Every structure is written in C-alpha cells, then in structure tokens.
Amino acid sequence: MHRRRWLIHVVLRALSHRKGRTVLLLAVLAMASSLATALGIVSYSMEKRVAEEVRKYGANLIIVPDSARLDVGSGGLNFGVISEPTYLQQRQVEDALAKSALKAERSFHLRGALHHKDADIMVEGVNFSDVRRLFPWWQLTGNWPTAGEVVVGKDLADRLKLKAGDIMECAGKAQTMRLRISGIVSSGGEEDGLLFLALSDLQRALGLEGQLSLIRLMVTAGGETLKKSAASLQMLLPTAKVNEVRQTARTSEGLLAKVKLLMLMVTAVVLISAGSSVAGTMSTTVLERSKEIGLMKAIGGTRWEVMLIFCGEAAMLGVLGGVAGYLFGSVIAQFITRTVFAASAEFVPWFLFVSLGISLFLALLGSLGPMVSVFKLDPVRSLRGE
Amino acid sequence: MSSAFCPVKRERLLRMAENIIETNGLTRNYGDICALKPLDLQIPEGEWLSVMGHSGSGKSTLMNLVGGLDRPSAGSLQVGGKDLLALNEDGLARFRREFVGIIFQQHHLVPYLTAVENVMMAQYFHSVPDEAEARHALERVGLGHRLKNRPGELSGGEQQRVCIARAIINSPKLLLGDEPTGNLDHKSTVMVMELLKELRAEERFTVVMVTHNQEVAGWGDRTIYLDDGVLVREERMR
Amino acid sequence: MAIVYKMIPHILASFGIALVMFRGFSGRRSVVALTSIAGFVAGAAGAVVLFRVYRGTIPFGVIKTALGSGFLILWGVAVGVMYRSTGRGTAFIGGERFVDSSYYAGICTVISSMVAGAICMSRLPVADSSVLKVAVFVFGGGVLACGVVFAAKILEKRLPAAVTVTQSGMLAAVMAFLLMSSSSTLRLDLFSPLSMKVMKGIHDFVHQFMESILIPDHLFVQPVVWKYIGYLFGKGVGFWGGMIIWFTPVLLIVLANQLERLPSVAHVRQGAQRRKLIFAAIEARRFRLVIPMFSVIVFAAAAYQSSFPSVEYWDPKPVPVTANQAGEIFIPKQGEINLEDGKLHKFLFKQGGREAKFFVLMTPAGKLTVVLDACAICKPDGYGQAEGSVICYYCITLIPLETVGKPGGCNPVPISFTEKADGVIIDGMTLVNTWGATVQSTARVKEGGK
Ligand SMILES: Nc1ncnc2c1ncn2[C@@H]1O[C@H](COP(=O)(O)OP(=O)(O)O)[C@@H](O)[C@H]1O
Ligand SMILES: [Mg+2]
C-alpha cells in the first residue's frame, strides 16, 4: 500500500476511534471557519453590489421637493417615498438648470396614483426618450410607447395579469384615460412595480400641469465637482433639495461597515476561543495517547514521522471542518444578506479556500503545543507508564 | 576501505562479526540512582540470552539501552557493529526499525488498529506497508483467523502473538523481549515460547529476553542474573 | 542602479540554469562550468553584434525563434518521455552513449547559456551606446557569469545528493528559466503571443467553419448554441488555451516521472528487503520530481510576469474634442498637447449620442498617425504605450511603434486625416462611422459571449 494512503487510513481510524472528541473538534472548527466565511462572503458580495449601484447610476444628482422625505433603502437604492405630495415647478427647475449652465442629462419624473379597476396603482410620468437614453438597463419586452400608450413594470403586470396590447382604463383626479400597453419593462428595481406613461399625460390626468416630483440629473463629473454643482443648484432652487445619489450608496456602505465590524469582532472572539478549545482538546488527546506515541517511536518511528501522524489528524480535522464551515458559512451569509440587506448573497466558490485556510490554520495552530510534546516524548518513560 | 589493512581495526571487525552486542562499562544513572552499574557483556550472534533478576535490578534498563530506546550514562555500546552512542535520536529510531524487534510485557498495540494494521504500522515505519506480507506473518504466528480484530477483542496470548508478528516483520537481527510472558498463563506462555523458538530456527535472529520465570529462562542458551544493576551470575544451559 | 535592478531576473535565471546543469551532468562539473561561462559571453557578444547591425525587430526575432524552438523541443521530449513511461521502450541507436559523453553536456550548456546571455544583452541599451560602453557590458556580463556559475557550483554541492534530475527534467528547468528571463522583456515574451495565436486560431476556425451557423435564423441551430459560440470569442479562450500549451510539456514530464515503473523485486526472497528496495525506488522517484515541480513554478512565474508585465504604460486620459460646422475636428500640433513628442495622445469625440476614441501618435519615422483607440478584432479596451511599442490591453499584443497606422490584426484602426502645418484635421463623420463599423460590432459579439 502507498505510504500516503496508509497515513490517511491510520488518521481516519484514529479519528473514528474517538468519535465524540472528533465531532466536538469538527464542530468548533466548522463554526469558527463558517463565521469567518460568512463575514467574507457578506462583505464581498455587498461591497460588489454597492460598487455596482454606484457605477450604474454614475455621478448623479436628484432633485426632490424640499418637504419630501428621502427614504433610503438599504441594499437596493430605493429612494423617493414621498410622505406628503409636494411638487416642483417644471419651469422653475428648467430655468435653474439653464442658469447654472450645468452640463447634465436630465430626466423629469412625476409620481402619482391612478384608479384602475377599484384599486390605486402607482404611476410615474416620464419622457420616454429621456428614459431610453438614461436608463439603458431597463429591459423592455414589446415596444416603447407612442402617444396614448404606456409600459408596465413586470411585477405590476404579473399582479394585474396585463400583457402587451391590452387596453386599460385609468382614472385620475382630473380626467380618465384609455391606455394601450405597448410593452413590459423590468429593471430589477422599484420600476418593476410601476406603470409608466408620458409625463404630460400624467400631469393632465392628475391635474398637475407643469409639476414634477423628482428630477434625475446625470452630471458628467465626479467627486468635488459634483458636490459644487449640487451646491450651486441648491442655491438656485431654494424650495427643493438637491442630493447626490452617492450619499445613498454611502449610507449602504456605512451600514455594511457596521455589520462588518460587528461580525469581525464576533469572529475574532470565536476564532480565539475556538483556537484555545482546539489546543485544550488536542493536549488531552495527546496526554491520553502517550503510550501509543511511545510505542510508535519504539517500533522505529522517528520523531518527525510520529509527529506527522498527529499533524495529519489535525489537518484532516481542519479540512473537514473547513468544508463544513464553507457550506454552513454560505448559508449564514445568505441569511444575513436576506435579513439585513434585503438582497441575496453571491455564490463565491473561492471562499472555500479561505474557509479551508482558516480551519486548517486553527487546527494546526491549536495543536502546535501538543505536537511539540509528541515530538519530545521519551518512549521509555511513556512505555513504563509514567 | 583502508581500514581493512589496519590490524587493530580488523581484529575489532572480526570480533563484531561474532558478537552482535558488545558493552564496555555500560552504565545508566537516573539522577542518584544507579540503575545499571558498569557492565561488560558480549552476546554472540544467534544466541538466546535470558536475563533474570528481581524487580528493580535493572533488566529493563539494560533492554532499553541495547534496543536503542535509551542512552547510557557512560561506557560503550556496540550493537550489530554500530556504535549507538554516535547516533542521534532519529538515527536511533532508524536503527530500531531496521535492526531490532521488541516485545513488551504489556502488549503495547495501537488500540484503534486491527491486528493486521498493527503489523503494517511497523512496515510503514520501516519502508512501505504491505498487507499480504503482514497477513502472512500473522498466519505464521497462528492468527490467520483474527486478522481484522482490534486488540481489545483478542486474548492476552493472542495479543502477544500479534506483537511477535510485528516484531519479526522487518526481519530484525535482534529480538528483545521484556518479560513477554509475564502476563500470560502457563499454556499461553508455552505457546509463545514454542513460537519464538520456531521463528528463530527460520529467521536466525538473536534473542535477549528478560524473565522472572526460571522455566522460561530455560528455553535460552545462557542466562545472566542481575542484582542492583550488577551482573552477579552467569549460567550456560547448553 | 536601474540596470542592476533590471538584471535581477536574468541573474536568477542564469544561476538556476547553471545549478540544474551541474546537477544534471554531475560527472562533468568542470565542462559545465567552462561551457556555461563561454556560452554566456558568446551569446552576449552575438546579441550585441545583431543589435548593432540590424536595428528594430530582427534581433528580437532571432532570440524569440531560439526560445520558441527550445519550447518546441521541450514539447517533443515531453511527449517522448511520456510515451516511454508507458513501457514501450524506444532505445535509439548510440543515443545513450552520446548522452553520457561530455560533448553532449558541453553542447547543452553552451546553447542554453548563449540564449541566456543574448536575453541579458537585450535589456541593455547596446544598440545606441558607444563601443567602449558595450564592451564594458559584455565584459561585465562575463564576470557576472563567472560569479553566478561558481555560486551555483557551490550551492549545488550543498544540495542533498538524493535530489537528482533526469535529462527531460533538466530541459524543462532550463526552458523554464529562459522563459522566465525573457518574459521580463515585453518584446521577448512568448506567453502573450502564444495565447494571442490561440485566440486568433480559434477565431479563424469559427469564421471558416461556422460562418453559416452564425446566421441568426439558421434553420437547425438553436439560439442557445450562439451563446456557446460566443464563448469562443472571449479573452478566456486564448488565455486558457495558451496556459494549456504552456504547461503541458512540463506537466507531462512530471506525470511521466510518476508513471515510471518501480523496479521488479520478485526475485528478492525476504519481505523486508523487498519493501526496502521499493521504498528506495519511490524515494528516488520523489526526489527526481523536485526539479520538474520547481520548473512548473518557474513557468507559472513566467506566465504571470507576461500577463502582468511590470511596465508603466503611458496612457493619458482622453481629451474631449468637438467638430466645427463643417464636421471637421482640428487638433493643433502645439499647445496644451504636443502631438509630436512621440507619445500617444488620446481624444474622445462625441456626436449625436455616438462616440469614438482615437489617438494621435508620431511614429519613430517622424510621421504623424491618427488611429482609433481600438482594433478590428478585440473588445475596445484601448492601448497603452510601452517602450518601443503600444500594447492592446485586451489581448496584450505588442504593436511596434513603427507599424502603428498600418491596418490589420490587432493594429489600431487607422483613420484618414489631413496634416496641416499647425495641426491635423479629421473628419468627424468618418471617425464615428469607422468606429461604428469596426469596433461596435466586435464589442457586441464579444459581449454576447459573456
Ligand atoms: N525513568 C526513571 N527515573 C528514575 N528511576 C528509574 C527510571 N527508570 C528506572 N528507574 C530505576 O532504575 C532501577 C531499575 O529499573 P528497571 O530497569 O525498570 O528494573 P527491572 O529490573 O524491574 O526492569 C529501579 O530502581 C528504578 O526505580
Ligand atoms: Mg522491568
């Protein structure tokens, strides 16, 4: 038989001989490495997500009415839940933009509710040409609308069982409209639950001619320039609030940082206690098995060879604990991102190696002391039974 | 080899070929306790030597020194032409696995390995494990039906026979037994001794065996008596 | 100081080669020592002559050819060794005796150290320096080679005697060190061109044989198939294909070593003796693995170095430009940007939602060129400028400055322009249309695969 295979065989035999202790050590190692893995996966996938959001929206400004509350979503960037309907004057905004000489792509939005079949549905009025240009990630099945047509968010369409070509009748405060659905839109964001129609149509239907609830600006600048642009716009629009979208991303980052810190501390505590409990268990094991160690040396094992067998046990525990820790840690990561961030964690295969590394490191570090005593053990004394 | 032309060294070489073990003033102290007083002992190759003496007289100490498990405090010790004092710890381990087979009173076996695997452990430290050979060795000691049993499932005599199989698996030149029959009843004792005699006839190893039992000592060619670390008497059987 | 720093990989490589040679021809240490120094000096001197006679790419081509042939030989040997390990013996007549002779040792050492010396010289400014300085370089190289060889000889004596190396393992190690040494120079690097070749080969294959399938509404082909065809256009294909070709020979040698038969021990009567023989054979085999395994690491280092060359690229931020009423873009030669300083200058032109990135560069021949910041075959990741060449970020192909402005391959797509005394004039429409025609399509195809 191959020497290596024999070593693994002996190690497995030894581990299965002391099942209770093996299970205990495995549990400790798996727990420690799973926490570390979960921490890693959560911060990795959330960081990536936040970075993606920031990139997706570019260097952006949004203008909302002053009294509107900017509700910040945590993971996804949901903003603009308006507590009291207040509006911005389209005219005023356009003037301000012209005066500020800000080079920016703009998109005007008006949020409101329309009555459809005994229920209110959230509607957003937009200029479709702006939308097409500024939000290229919207995925549309069907066609972009022409006059008298609308597009429906995917979730809303599913809920109301609408499909392209359907005619729906919607009533606003001021007038009722017959609208033909030209397409279904999905963006993966809050847009999926909205109905989109031409801005001017919605303004007319709600009796809010020339009013807006949100303006999105794509300023081709970043960092300090963006801050300056926001400030100068704010001066020109005293009744509005100019926000950088990065702020919202920053809020997510802040939350992420806090969760990370918390988990880091928990992980540190767990790692330390796991390491010491591995050390404790291992040294009792070695004490109990001193006769066996002495015997192995007596029948011709060098100090290194005998130590290798015991290191093999630690390493085997480390590997098994690491694999279990990875699986368990991925589940924990899913749980955390679901509950805290309302998003799903990514499946990150290479974290298996991180988990394995941590578990192996703990197992070997914890058995460092016991290994030294294995190395030093005098066969004569241990066989005499001292 | 220029040493072959040096008369003194050649004489030593020749002597070595006869004596597998040679000690000169071999001493072992444990702190103040002198477990083995300076001892001069020659054991010719192929001899079966019995060592007797009351408890604490230094028999085990002598065994451990000769088997390369322990180091003397003073004196010289040559086993199989090797100066054991010149070897370091790992060198001694290598010496043990190639040269010596050891059988203990408490049949020290690895508890979680089967009989075959216990024998294979010795093969592993020596070179590579070979299951067929290990099985054959166990069959030779009459344990062909107990291959897959753990030590806990074997009787004392059977365990001792596993130890014998393990001790001879690497074809040692020297077989050491530290009261191998001390824990066995009369029937098992006879069985083990018969087995050892049989194996020695085939493999031609030298035997050094500690025993309390006059009858067991009678199986050997020569018996030495130790008292308080001193060789007090020597008796030749045949 | 900078020169010494630059020389470190080459010194290490020479050291490694000498070390492996000493171990491989352990009976002929003095022959190896002598020939490696002589070979190094001869290679260095030969390279100097080449660089001074032919300026430009020819000397690099010569060294690259030598390296490439070495790599091919390694492939052949690896396949041969693998074949032999399966038990079908191939004893070639007289081969064994030749391999044992000191001629063979000398020839092997001379050739490998010649290449090492030539690579060393290619890092130094030998083409433009004075004769005296060049002589100093060659002499210094010789002295350095002596030092390195003797250091290697001393270290080799201290290595455990159990570590042995087979002929194939020695070849693998020497090639690994040479390739590591060459990959620190962009113009001698083999790995990137190799993966580029693989990528191009696959592209051509797809174009030749799958053209009909690529028609979207093909009768028999599901749209899913498209996705998989798209994978063939990814950068990964070239990279992984290159990796396979790069590592296979040395891995074959490793594998052949592991597959080698253990000696027959059936005639040995005693079990312990038998096991001991087997154990000794296994140990010896394991020690023979040390050098090939180490070569795998060196090969990996070479591939890494060529994928992430430690070169600072000149890559300015694109300057936005606009067209006048006639649709023409005027870029002044002097002013904020000096177009004629031999560096590439990037510009960004936007028109009606369409845009094009391009750069202007004065070639070493003194001609201004205007080209897109993209080529016709890669994803438009753009170019950066390294010494003597621009590099396509996507496929890491080097394009010598001399050939910028010529169409084809991964060369940046040339744009027609008119040169005035004070600047260049480019037609905006042409620019955007060329971008749309060549770049947009490649970008889409490649994204489709992702
Ligand atoms: N490790 C030790 N430390 C101290 N004293 C020891 C040690 N080992 C043996 N001795 C002493 O050496 C003497 C000889 O012991 P030993 O050789 O085991 O006797 P026995 O003939 O019974 O085998 C005893 O007096 C014992 O107490
Ligand atoms: Mg005793």
Description:
The complex is a heterotrimer of chains A (386), B (238) and C (450). Chain A has helices at 3-17, 19-57, 90-100, 128-134, 154-160, 199-206, 223-236, 245-288, 290-298, 303-341, 351-366, 368-376, 379-384, and strands at residues 60-65, 88-89, 104-116, 119-126, 139-142, 149-153, 167-171, 176-186, 195-198, 211-212, 214-219, 240-244. With 386 residues, chain A is α+β, with helices and mostly antiparallel strands. Chain A is elongated. The model of chain A is unreliable at 68-83 (pLDDT under 50). Chain B starts with 6 loop residues before the first helix and ends with a strand. In chain B, helix 4 (115-126) packs parallel to helix 6 (156-168). Chain B is built from 8 helices and 10 strands. The radius of gyration of chain B is 18 Å and the shape is globular. The model of chain B is unreliable at 1-10 (pLDDT under 50). Chain C is flat. A 5-stranded mixed sheet of chain C has the order 1-3-4-5-9. A 3-stranded antiparallel sheet of chain C has the order 2-11-10. By secondary structure, chain C is an alpha+beta fold. Chain C has 3 domains: 2-191 and 242-307, no CATH class; 195-231, no CATH class; 319-449, Rieske Iron-sulfur Protein. Mean pLDDT of chain C is 83; it is low at 444-450. Chain C is built from 13 helices and 11 strands. In chain C, a hairpin with a 2-residue loop joins strand 3 (345-351) and strand 4. The structure holds adenosine-5'-diphosphate and magnesium ion (MG). Adenosine-5'-diphosphate binds next to strand 2 and helix 2 of chain B.
